[in-house]
Structure formats: structure tokens, C-alpha cells
Amino acid sequence: MKAGCRVTVLISGNGSNLQTLIDQQARGELPIRLQAVISNRDDAHGLQRATDARIPSLALSHKQYGSRDEYDAALAQAIDSHGTDLLVLAGFMRILTPDFVLRYQGRMLNIHPSLLPAYRGLHTHRRVLEQGDSQHGCSVHFVTPDLDAGPIVLQARVPVGQQDTEETLAARVQAEEHRIYPLAVRWFAQGRLALRNGAVHLDGSPLPAPLVLGQGDPLPH
Ligand code: GRF
Predict the structure, then answer these.
(1) Which of 9, 12, 17 most suits a substitution to test ligand 1, by most atoms within 8 Å of the C-beta?
(2) What is the pLDDT along the chain (221 residues), one digit of tens a residue?
(3) Greatest CA separation found in the chain?
(4) Does the beta carbon of 15 lie inside 6 Å of ligand 1?
(5) Which of 30, 49, 123, 200 could make a disulfide contact with 24, Cβ separation 3.0–4.6 Å?
(6) Atom of ligand 1 nearest to the CA of 45
(7) Going by CA atoms, what residue is nearest to atom 7 of ligand 1?
């Protein structure tokens, strides 16, 4: 598979979603080139994952910048210095300025641990348990200036059981994240996924609704 699409990944922590991209790319299943991994925290485990995979990595701490605008300008400079066709947010725990988002609009994806539009923001697993919901999940979406509100590409549902804790639920959701995020990245890299006039297009047609998978469902091609 031709490795055409240059991808930069932004992280803040563990980097398990990053790892699935690294692994699939290494197995020749993703037509991407991982250009760089950038973290706003220098203790993010994902930086080690990048080093192990020989991907250039950078810790760019927000603490060294006086404002959000200054930080995002430095971040954009770092991203662009590597050449980036697709920016993948994988657990990047910062709100981005509208200028930054507009610069990468249509080529920036995020994964969020809820069935958006439900539970934007933080602590989604806890909030789902508090509400007594029977279903939970994750969503891949294009990033737009409104937090966790960009057009949704793909979602995966998981059941919520009586015995679930935040930890068990997080693990079940993450297993699905690791399936659907690489799929969306692959579609983008293959030129099949695009954001046009604010709408998600797959294979040239607007998606009438986000694609929703059940836990463990076979992935579409
Ligand atoms: C994931 O649960 C993702 O949905 C959220 O942050 C977490 C990142 O996990 N945005 P990891 O760093 O990829 O393991």
C-alpha cells in the first residue's frame, strides 16, 4: 500500500490510539506516513511509543507560553515544519483556538469517548454511569471550532452493564476506539473521506448520518 498521506498525531497521555496507528502502519494496513508525534506534556507515555517506533517526537509544553494564541502558533509551526496532510488528535487534552482549528479544518480528526452529541467534554464514562444509560461508545469527528461538535464520521456503541465501573467502561470503549479510529484515518488517507461544505463525504457522497457500529461488528471496507 502506498504510504502517501503524511500524518501528525497530537497526544497528551498514554497514546494507545497512536499505537494502533503505528501498528497498522507497520503491518502495511494504513497508507500513511507518521511524520511526527507532538505532546503538550513531556511525561506522556505516547512520546516513548513514538521513540520506539522511530517517529520524530516533540514535547511542546503549554506552560512555556503566555497565551493560548502563542501556544497554538508554536504548535502550528511545529506541525507544518514536518509537512502534514492529516492532523490526528488522539487524547490531546487542550482546547484549540479558532484560528488553529480553521487552519486545519477538513484535515483534522478527533476521537471522543461518547456517542456524540451526548456527553461533550470530560469524564464521559462517569457521567454515563451517573445517568444510568444502557449504551455508551465513541465517535470520530472532524474538528470544528465548537468543542466536540464537529461533523461525525463514525461511531461505535458498547453496552453498559450493572457492574460497570469507570475503568471497565473505559476499557470497553477504548477497544472500539482502536477499531474505528484507524478505519477513519485509512479512509482519509485513501482520499475517500472528506469534509465538504460542512458535511462528511465518503466515496464522493454526503453521509446522511454517521456510520454506527455495534461492539465487535465487522468493520466496513
Ligand atoms: C481516548 O479515550 C480518547 O477518546 C480521548 O482520550 C483518550 C486517549 O487515550 N480523546 P490514548 O492516549 O489514545 O490511550
Answers:
(1) 17
(2) 556 899 999 999 999 999 999 999 999 999 999 999 999 999 999 999 999 999 999 999 999 999 999 999 999 999 999 899 999 999 999 999 999 999 999 999 999 999 999 999 999 999 999 999 999 999 999 999 988 899 999 999 999 999 999 999 999 999 999 999 999 999 999 999 999 999 999 999 999 999 999 999 999 99
(3) 49
(4) yes
(5) 30
(6) 12
(7) 91
Q: Is the CB of 31 under 6 A from ligand 1?
A: no
d(CA 89, CA 96): 11
Q: Residue 112 catalytic?
A: yes
Tell me if 147 is assigned to some domain.
no
Tell me the CA–centroid distance for residue 163 and ligand 1, in Å: 23
Write the Ramachandran bin of 27: left for phi over 0, alpha for psi from -120 to 50, otherwise beta: alpha
| Total number of domains constituting the chain | 2
| Domain with 167 in it | 113-139+153-221
Please tell me which residue in 45, 62, 112, 136 is annotated as part of the active site.
112
Residue 144 lies in a domain: no
Strands (E), 60-213: 86-89, 108-112, 135-142, 152-159, 193-196, 199-202, 205-206, 211-213
* 137 pocket-lining for ligand 1 (C-beta < 6 Å): no
pTM equals 0.96
- Tell me whether residue 124 is in a domain: yes
Considering the domain architecture, whether residues 189 and 98 belong to the same structural domain is answered as no
Q: In this structure, what C-alpha cell is assigned to residue 34?
A: 507518521
